[in-house]
Amino acid sequence: MLALNEAGAPFHDAALPSVPALGHRAFVLSEWVPELKGRRGVLELSVSGGALAAVPLRFSGEGVMSSVEAQGLYEGQGGGARVYVFPHIAAGGGFSSTISLSNLEAEPARVRLTARAGAGDGSTAAWPAGWSGQEVEIGSGKTMEITLPDEGAMPASGMVRVESDRRLGGMVQFRRAMEGMPGQAAAVALMTPGGPLVAPFDNRDGVLTAIALANAHVTEEARVTLTARNAAGAVIETATVNLPAQGHRAVALTELLPRSQGEWGGLEIRTEGGAASAIALRFLDSGAFTSIQMWK
């Protein structure tokens, strides 16, 4: 394990516990490697033998927990324009979002971020809180962080389009803090647009699945087809959403697919035109929520 600070400079190299065949280990990283306590940055994991998978878990002092999707590290030379997207961000009305981006290549990355706020009907406008994006350079191995604070009585939600000439990894963590309720957080990995996409859904008692759709194309509309299937694979219902260029829509799945109420199973998303992506959000009656990364 190699730890790099925000500037991309290595500051600690250590061996983590070995994992036996068909084994599993979960541990607090700073307890195993005390040098990481009070620090932040990026971890690079290299594996010798076996077939290892890993997921980091992030905890705050208030007890808020979220998972973080690990990104594959590209060690070769890249170059060429790439478009990524965070399909959902939220700020205001108790919500805040923190965007983290890391350069996974050996050369500096020129990055442009464009934030758009959804109007509810699929159309978007510039982000209302004074930050509509920026252009930055991220050095090799370096990480940048941008926070959209909780400003304003009403929440705004939307998407962020990310253009880069190098391969990036990243996530956005959006948090909700409301008086009288425990804090909540969810993390969404940086995505490349396109599909098809698949995710589980659950709309049984006390649970609601929502969907956030984003079209990262700057000129072309995206036609998005959603199909809900039950646990046996039978089609419950299909619906189509037309997303304009740079469009965003976040909605309860039951609003688009009413017959999914009381059901659980799999959600398929297929797109034509544009550059669409999506994430699912799972809500409980208690107010707890989490994000569900969709699979390609």
Number of H/I helices: 2
Indicate the structural class. Answer: mainly beta
Helix content: under 10%
CATH topology of the largest domain: Hypothetical Protein Tm1070, Chain: A
* Gyration radius, in Å: 20 Å
Number of strands: 22
Short description:
The chain has 296 residues and is mainly β.
Any overview of this molecule?
There is one protein chain. With 296 residues, this protein is an all-beta fold. The chain folds into three domains: 54 residues, no CATH class; 108 residues, Hypothetical Protein Tm1070, Chain: A, CATH 2.60.290; 96 residues, Hypothetical Protein Tm1070, Chain: A, CATH 2.60.290.11. Helices cover 3% and strands 49% of the residues. It is globular and about 50 Å long. The model has no long low-confidence stretch (mean pLDDT 87).
Question: What is the topology?
Answer:
Elements (H helix, E strand, L loop, with lengths): L1 E3 L5 E4 L15 H4 L9 E3 L12 E3 L5 E3 L14 E10 L3 E9 L5 E10 L5 E3 L6 E6 L4 E6 L7 E9 L3 E9 L7 E6 L7 E6 L4 E9 L6 E9 L4 E9 L4 E5 H4 L7 E9 L3 E9 L4 E4 L4
Antiparallel strand pairs: 1-2, 1-3, 4-5, 6-12, 7-11, 7-13, 8-9, 8-10, 8-12, 13-14, 15-20, 16-19, 16-21, 17-18, 17-20, 21-22
List descriptors.
Hypothetical Protein Tm1070, Chain: A; 3 domains; four-stranded antiparallel β-sheet; 2 helices; globular
